[in-house]
Amino acid sequence: MTTWVVLSDLQIPWHDAPVLEGLVLPFIAWLKPHGVILNGDIVDCYSISDFTKNPRKSQQWGLDAEIRHAGRLMHALHCISEKWWLGGNHEDRLRRLVWREPALAAVRALSFPQLFKLADYGFKWKSYGG
User: Fold this and answer.
1) Which DSSP letter does residue 46 get?
2) Which residue spans within the chain are E strands per DSSP?
3) Which among 85, 106, 103, 105 has a CA at the least distance from the CA of 41?
């Protein structure tokens, strides 16, 4: 029997860091699952959402910070054999932003898997609604 772990709706940077880093990740390391699924809304993509934003929070928690924090999470899961990131509506905010400017739509580096370097951490990607 293979064991899988599913994490969902962390919404980095609003996640509960003490719980994730102090309890969840150590438990996953102890469990040694075969696979992990990051099941959408792992990052919030707050700074590129369509909603009205607090400018102070936007400066503190821009997309660069979310990419760094997501990278730390993926790195912490490096020993797991099979890794999937299933995009949620929050990850899809990047696609919607890029599609508003058609000239950017062809820039591969602006796709979620490229920008967040999923392949560098061994993650496979399934887009939102795909």
Assistant:
1) G
2) 4-7, 35-39, 82-86, 123-126
3) 85
